[in-house]
Amino acid sequence: MVKITKKNKGHKKSGWDKKSRIKSNLFMLPSILGVLTFFVVPFFVVIYYSVIDNVVSKKFVFLDNFINVLKNEAFKKAAFNTMRFTFIAVPLAVILSMLLASLMMENIPFKSQFRTLFLTPLMVPVASVVLIFQVLFHYNGVVNDFIRIFGVDKIDWFKSKYAPVVIVILFLWKNLGYNMILFMAAYSSIPKEIMEVARLDSSSNWQLFWKVKLRYLSPTIMFVTVLSVINSFKVFREVYLLTGDYPYESLYMLQHFMNNTFASLDYQKLSAAAVIMFDVMVIIIGILFVVENRYGKDVEE
Questions:
Q1: Which candidate, 171, 172, 147, 144, places its Cα nearest to that of 242?
Q2: 0.85 exceeded by the pTM?
Q3: N or C: which end of the chain has fewer CB within 10 A?
Q4: What sign results for the dihedral spanned by CA atoms 152, 153, 157, 163?
Q5: SS3 60
């Protein structure tokens, strides 16, 4: 009869853990290979292209491509329009969705109908959304017919200074519903005991929101903000379907610049612009993480 000692048990457990790790790694291997093939390797290829003069001679030029891109007027215009859109649309998307979620948490009439109304854009394809906005904001569209009632002249919305307003409205209409659901879930997770204690201390609604709710909402605010920033850089899809390759100058986005550069086969300029865009995104998201960590750290602890 073999006596099983604690040492033997340890060896048996260690061997089992090793086999489990090997099996886990084998299951993860296809995903790791996919990420390496379609994300990591192309990313380093883009960095390589951004520091050579062309794909034929492959001469190392270091920062020359970046300097040329930063001096390019089309890139400056695209970067300015994209950043302006982001700094206008993202705060509106976060604040409005947070206010809508707060409203939906109250006992208001037709709450289910309002919730469905805001979630409907999530089920509509982008092409259909664009078609709706083309009908609304066409020169002979519904919006111009409406404003003419008040004696306002028709506006060519997609070829005027008001064009970014249309895109901001489209962005908000498309994204508010999803953000609202995220904030509603965050509101539901706030401990009721803390809310009751704050009310017993005669806290006003503003103090209740600023001192309690906002602190517990900070991780969700962070997530929604990052998600909105990423979506704001992808708004080119809607702009392209509305206006094509060369829209009115106030709608010329970074993706327009990249698409047109790709069409001219200028891979070095395209790669340099992509790396610059990546760096800006990392900086913005990094700042958001630092702010959220400082503000919401006490709640997490």
A1: 171
A2: no
A3: N
A4: negative
A5: strand
Q: What's the CA gap between 126 and 264, in Å, rounded?
A: 27
How confident is the prediction along the chain (301 residues), in pLDDT tens digits per residue? 445 455 555 555 555 577 788 888 888 888 889 989 988 898 899 999 999 888 778 888 888 999 999 999 989 999 999 999 999 999 999 999 998 888 888 777 777 777 777 778 778 788 888 888 888 888 888 899 888 888 888 888 888 888 889 999 999 988 888 899 899 888 888 887 777 777 777 667 777 777 777 788 888 888 899 899 888 888 888 888 888 777 788 888 888 888 888 888 888 888 999 899 888 888 888 888 887 777 655 555 5
CA separation for the pair 258, 237 (Å, rounded): 13
What the block records as the tokens of 112 is 């289910």
Dihedral, CA atoms, 31, 32, 38, 43, nearest 10 degrees?
A: 150
Task: Give the span between the Cα atoms of 218 and 87, in whole angstroms.
Answer: 19
Q: How far apart are CA 28 and CA 300, in angstroms?
A: 31
Here the tokens at position 186 are: 């965050």
* Gap between the Cα atoms of 246 and 258, Å rounded: 12
Alpha-carbon torsion angle 14, 20, 26, 30, nearest 10: -130
- Name the superfamily (CATH) of residues 64-300: MetI-like (1.10.3720.10)
